[in-house]
């Protein structure tokens, strides 16, 4: 069965499939980004003394994702994609309930971990669903189009959070998240058919799961692409962790923070649209290397400017730098994940769990370190982009050369 035939039989139409996948994938982005304008209020309400500790409200979501992602792949391979997402959805709703009624910071963080664990199902299983229906360049193209829709959520999420704060309490943001997840689950249940063919189901067992994990982490190409993505995404988590302090406080944007954040997110959406065209004509590996080279070079330039300057970077310069970074991320996000999972289509569920878990653990460790290094300047963040971009670039070039040697 061809990819296009399988897709046509698996869903009412391609556009709706893309929209539903984007909504499910956006659960994590919405859970993180809608909170950003409220971090200070949440910290004050729950008696957090160190402002840098408010970043944990962001970081714990990614920690929860890392803890949950290994759960859903084997379940989705054994019982189907939809039941795995239903399980994650219930966990997310419970976590949102914890955060709604939290009276102390520890309860809040527990709720955030559960939200991350639940949202992990959407990240892992939607990628497997896409892999069920598409292959190669078509998968990369579909991923880019999904990213284009998906990125609208982080673009408007801070504005949603800011708008809710204007008329209500920060707890109302979690009520909104609860409702959003419920709508997504109902849409999935009512409109999307199961994409995993019964003949491709893998019985749930420790041996099958272990074999899938072993194959994923020992595959010479998937392993390296997985690590490269995790390192690069660490810089992005570092940005998410410190964005509110840098833009809203350091640059004194106040309520305009959500607008500036949204503009940066739209840069990823625009880049994803451009990427959906480019991948049909340029090798995915080449696009990733170009994007990583640009990330490293621009970071060297702006780090040098800031390091040798007696005053902070003007806001316009810093925004220009971040726009470049986000444009490059729009190329990297879908493409590197496609490269990592493509050789493992026969175990897409487990493979996506392993890949996503490793990526998230790496990104949380690296991103938390970058965020906690915030010292009132942009230097730690720019240095984070520089080091992460350079390390990913070296690994990407090495892996592409290894791939060429294997094909000879």
CATH superfamily (homologous) name: MFS general substrate transporter like domains
Elements, N to C (H/E): HHHHHHHHHHHHHHHH
Q: Total domains, how many? A: 1
How many strand segments? 0
Shape: globular
Output the CATH topology.
Answer: Growth Hormone, Chain: A
Q: What portion of residues belong to β-strands?
A: under 5%
Short structural summary:
The chain has 408 residues and is mainly α.
Task: Give an overview of the whole structure.
The structure is a single chain. The chain starts with a helix and ends with a helix. The chain is built from 16 helices and no strands. The model is unreliable at 1-12 (pLDDT under 50). The protein has one domain (3-191, 204-407): Growth Hormone, Chain: A. Helix 2 runs antiparallel to helix 4 (56-79), helix 6 packs across helix 15 and helix 11 runs antiparallel to helix 14 (315-341). It has 408 residues and is mainly α. It has helices at residues 3-10, 14-33, 39-45, 56-79, 81-100, 105-133, 136-150, 152-167, 171-191, 206-218, 220-250, 257-278, 284-307, 315-341, 348-372, 379-407. Helix content is 81%, strand content 0%. The radius of gyration is 20 Å and the shape is globular.
